[in-house]
Amino acid sequence: MGNIDAENMMEEATKFKEKGNEAFKNEKWDESIEMYSKAIKLRSSMKDKDLAIYYKNRAAAHLKKNNYEAALTDCTNSLEITPNDPKALFRRSQAYESLQKYEEAYKDAVDLWKADPNNKSVQPMLKKLHAIVQDRATENAKTSTKVKKMCEIAFDLNSPVDKRKSAMNNILVLAREPVGAECLEKEGIVPKIAALTKTEKCEEIYLNAIRTISEICNKNIPRTKVVIGSLGIPWFLQVLNSKNADRISAAQFCLQTILNTFSGMDHKVESKPNKEMCQKYFKEIDTILTCLVYSITDRLISGMSRDAIMELLSRNVQYSALNWGERLVEIRGLYRLMEVCSELEEYKYESAMDITENSRSVASVCLAKIYECMYYDELRAKFTEQIEEYVKEKLLEPDFESKVRVTVAITSLLNGPLDVGNSIMARDGVLQMILAMASDDDALQQKVACECIVAATSKKDKAQTMMHMAVDILKKLYNSKNEAIRVRALVGLCKLGSYGGTDASIRPFADGSTKKMAEACRRFLIKPGKDKDIRKWAADGLAYLTLDAEVKEKLCEDIPAIRALIELARNGGESILYGVVTCFVNLCNAYEKQELMPEMIELAKFAKHHIPEEHELDDMDFVNKRIDVLCNNGITSALVNLSKTDSKNSKELIARVFNAICSMQELRGKVVQDGGAKALLPMSLDGTEKGKRHASQALARIGITINPEVAFPGQRSLEVIRPLLNLLHPDCTALENFEALMALCNLAQMGESVRKRILTEQGLSKIEAYLMEDHEFLIRASVQCICNLCMSEEVVKLHEGENDRVKFLALLCESEDEETAKAASGALAMLTSESVICCKKIFDTVRWLDVLHTLIANPSPDVQHRGLVVILNMINANEEIARKVMETDVLELLMGLSKLQDEDRTKAVEISIQCLRSAERYNIIAQSNDAPIPDIFKEAERLAELNEFNEMD
User: What does pTM read for this prediction?
Assistant: First the structure.
């Protein structure tokens, strides 16, 4: 029985391998990796020759995807089974070379030459790598001397500070190069930096020393292990413990770099951990996590450091390969985060934690991200259980301070993992306790309870319940003499008053109340001397009220209030972000809109259901005026500043506003000028699905209007390609598809590197899919994009393959849309100028002669000119093709066209003459041919009538 199972597994594995080979042949790299992985899983216990083949095949696919570390691992696994296998050595050498490990690549190339001396690919590889290794040996000697000299100056406390600054800066530059990093390690840079940080007073030298450690660890596991062994993770946390933002940022980046090195990530937004590496270095990764978690509640660190630690957890907890979400529950990380959530600046003891104004918000975001990782009910139950345990402990304590603290913690839950917060609120006595605190005379209890009530009305069903219980209390608190309490009560009333959303027919409060509340918020916002906390709450109030179209218009007429909002966005922290950006989203009408189909409206009327009504002030003209006001007062630079947040929901809101601004062509230049394109790129790759789409569409709109070399300079022109291609998806709207195609068309003109990246990202097949759409603009845009891509040799080769690409372009030359025909004929002109095969493939079209007729007699001079270039290329290709073309009535048409007197068609006439001269070379036509020349347009009419007649038959 066991043998039969083994045979079945072998057969299944072989089938998966064959499917992988087919996918690889069709350039479907992800699919091929998946198939090979399934084959490996079935045969992993057998360690035979077939398994070695699966590994090296998967390595080839990883190389195509630029997954060099994964390719390296697969080749090594293959070579462990079949040592000196030529293909495995060749691919591992390629992987090493791409990872800039030239000595290792050279060794594999030498072994490959020994194993397969007749392999023609080996000699050039050996020659190239030998030259690199030799150059590196020379460079190593020079770099080693330079490193010694720089270290002598940088670590000599008696040297002048300016010289030491310059030396440490040079050390940092050297550390960024693999050779330099190796030399610095040999020079003992790590213990020198550890000693330096104890005494160094110059901040610039200190920062560059920490950054040097980052570069030494970057993507190099052996060096990172040396650094960890020498310094230990606690050393990094000591460096992080500071009130200097730059120092904290450098230490935070250093810890992230170490984590990236062990997990296979890099600092790019779209980068993800490698599961195999995470398993291999679980101990090191878990040590980092444990140290971070225990530092959350460390009473000796600064508030800014605490925020940085929680941000590190938030940034990495989403990755399932790391499994930090589940681990955080296991090691009671939730308990520590709740401790931060419950911390109040009003309670200052010697043992109190130092927190910032953002600490509770950062902890709340972290809790929300951990809860998102609870993928199944059992995990969610464990999460909720740990939170409930914390709340229960606090409520059992008899003093009022514990109740105040637990209320603040519940508020953080309601602003983070809302479902957990609502389950806590539903516990017996919790809501009653909070309402009782709101009715107390103690200002702190009132403030804390008011905040909790505001947070508890996040969902409409909850809001209805709260309206009956909390409106009177909030109105009472609004009359408080304490402005901090008044503004919070006002926000609660604003939130309940916005229950109708954008529906103009729903007004929860009496007419005029919304405007009065908006005016109160505005006064808090612009009144001189108000602290940031009060202005933040005022912005939160407006975030709810600006769902009302009348409030939007009134606010945009109030320039001081708009400027105050934008200034708050520019200088505020994480706690201010959401309210301010929500205001901007509402003012731009960039929120999600429900599409109301006429049929559904009639059905709702018949069923006597409520039908939402849009306010006349939410018409597009009014919206565009509001967007213009925001841009004239500096919203774009504020959004760029806000985009640095780690909150995906906030990023979505920012992307929505950017997209609304970019919908106005005249404002796109302002977005680019203020750094908007740079800010949108990471948001288009990392965030919520809707957020990524909005950011990508904004980038597409920029790419359509503004020269891509200005909008996306340097490396950015390559990075923007993936977001644009992501819009070429069936789930995206036709407008998103069209704008992405137009932007890609412009980008494809920039250069070969851009065109190659489009091909690497499987862009050509995505673009070609729109050739078959039943939409004129989409077809036109895709053909124009393909036309520009045809400047690439790789695209020409793809058209030469066994496919209908040339046939499709030939048929599109007959399109009634002039722009489509122009692009298709232009693409054919480029392809036929480079490839005889493409010239031949035109004959694959059954109606190829009709296509040539259409091109020669085309009413558009541009299409006619391009079409004649295609015919000229076919004639010049070889005699066989030339005779096949010229044996038809094309000869007569060309002769007629060569005599045409029309200034608009001068180029076409010139090309037709060249066609005739080229035909003379093959003696297809005689040089003294005096045959009568037909009128080109009459001939065109005759052919058109003939085609029509045939179609009728």
Answer: 0.70
Size of the chain in residues: 953
Query: How many other CB atoms are there within 10 angstroms of residue 445's CB atom?
Result: 19
Residues 6+ apart with CB under 8 A from 633: 559, 562, 563, 566
Report CA-CA distances (Å) from 609 to 505, 594, 615, 616, 840.
13, 16, 19, 22, 64
Distance CA 427, CA 239 (A): 43
Do 805 and 764 meet the contact criterion of CB atoms below 8 Å apart?
no
Does residue 256 form part of some domain? no
Q: Which residue has the higher pLDDT, 497 or 854?
A: 854
* Structural domain harbouring 63: 2-119
CA distance 397 to 377: 31
Give 774-790 pLDDT, tens digit per residue: 889 999 999 999 999 99
User: Distance between CA 211 and CA 253 in Å, rounded?
Assistant: 8
Residue 695 included in any domain: no
Residue 56 domain-assigned (yes or no) = yes
Residue 92, domain CATH: 1.25.40.10
| Last residue of one domain, picked from the residues 73, 94, 119 | 119
User: For residues 184 and 172, what is the distance between their CA atoms, to the nearest angstrom?
Assistant: 10
pLDDT higher for 9 or 867?
A: 867
Look at the chain and report how many structural domains it folds into. 2
CB contact at 8 A, 860 and 810: no
241-295 per-position pLDDT tens digit: 999 999 999 999 999 999 999 999 887 777 889 888 999 899 999 999 999 999 9
Task: Report whether 845 contacts 887 (CB < 8 A).
Answer: no
Three-state DSSP state, 55 = helix
Residue 817 Rama label (left phi>0; alpha psi -120 to 50; beta)? beta
CB atoms within 10 A of CB 934: 16
CA distance 553 to 786: 45
- For residue 490, the one-letter residue type is L
Integer angstrom CA distances of residue 220 from 168, 176, 351, 934: 21, 12, 40, 75
**The domain boundary residue, chosen from 97, 119, 141:** 119
Q: What DSSP character marks residue 456?
A: H
In a domain, 871, yes or no: yes
The burial class, CB within 10 Å (0-12 / 13-18 / 19+), for 665 is exposed
pLDDT in the model for residue 919: 86
Q: Which of 229, 330, 228, 343 is nearest to 296 (CA)?
A: 343
Sign for the CA dihedral angle at 859, 861, 866, 870 comes to: positive
Cα separation, 412 vs 21, in Å, equals 52
